Amino acid sequence: MFKPIANMKWTSAFLTAGLLVMGTAACNNQEKTASETPAAGISKQAWGQADGQTVDLYSLTNSKGTIVKITNYGGIVTSFITKDKNDAASSIVVGFDSIAQYLQSPPYFGAIIGRYGNRIGGGKFSIGDQTYSLATNDGANHLHGGIKGFDKVIWTADPVSDTVASLSLHYLSKDGEEGYPGNLDVTVKYTLTDEDELRIEYDATTDKPSPVNLTNHSYFNLTGDVQATILDHQLQIDANGYTPVDAGLIPTGEIKAVAGTPFDFTTANSIGSRIDSVEGGYDHNWVLNSKGSSLQKVATLSDSVSGRYLEVFTTEPGLQFYSGNFLDGKFINHTGSAVKLRSALCLETQHFPDSPNKKEFPSTILEPGQKYHSVTVYKVGVKK
Ligand code: GLA
Fold this sequence. Notes:
The protein is an all-beta fold. It is built from two helices and 28 strands. Alpha-D-galactopyranose binds next to β25 and β26.
């Protein structure tokens, strides 16, 4: 059962807008029809236990009836329910209805990734004279923050809102956690706007220099049904270059032009059209033309079956497009279908992989006294 939030800091603007907290029970189904759409606002339900603590599931609903559900376990976006061109609602992200499945370590479905999204080669890096050894969890490499990254910790949740529903999540990553130096104080704020934007703001401070590269690992399938692969989705990425990788998916350090290669998504192209000429499929970092200078639109994904499209805006200089190459059907989505090879894809905004070992890449080292601030927006639309 869903409960209204007791400690909401609603402002008068929010109340004037008539966006009241959802006070009554809503059904637990991920799929909703337009007629069942709950009132806009935010609600909370107890969602079981992880690490001996209670975790919760928050539902953010906007005035259009779009719903984003987020748990404070791993800051995971469990569903993002929007209407398709026929006004049928379904979730465009892979997720589960219960915490139990998330405790079985799915491949980062919907989670916040940190301290370092993507790989650090050999699980080692140096700052000054000091070499640090990180947990290695991807062969010899460090991936997505290590064995117990930010995707597997419990965040303190604070539903804060002005005119739209937001959920602010906080986590203190202790000095030495997974091998990283310094106490890192992290806040990730999710906001669902009335324009169907899921805005994610990442902020952090540290008391020792440390690499920081935060992202969200949502797996999208715009059809809302993972029985269909994402190979017919069209993708456009505003990037003239990408970072080629070695066999362990560590960048070589080179930035290669996409022109004339299967990595050229400067104009919209179907994902399946050239994927077979990329060994293992797409799992690469695109060097965005925006260079991470300000919040800019960097990619558009679209699907003609549902009519949905997804625009990605970010302040980050890179985008990992991962075509779901390791998905193997082991996990069952909330729709009851197995999440199979290439049935979903990720568009992870980030700094480049292995930056702590690549002096030529933009730095990911956060210094004490500096403020880490990064914004990414996933905006959904529909063409009727
Ligand atoms: C990232 C990586 C992939 C893979 C997935 C999780 O996107 O780039 O290689 O590890 O996470 O399976």
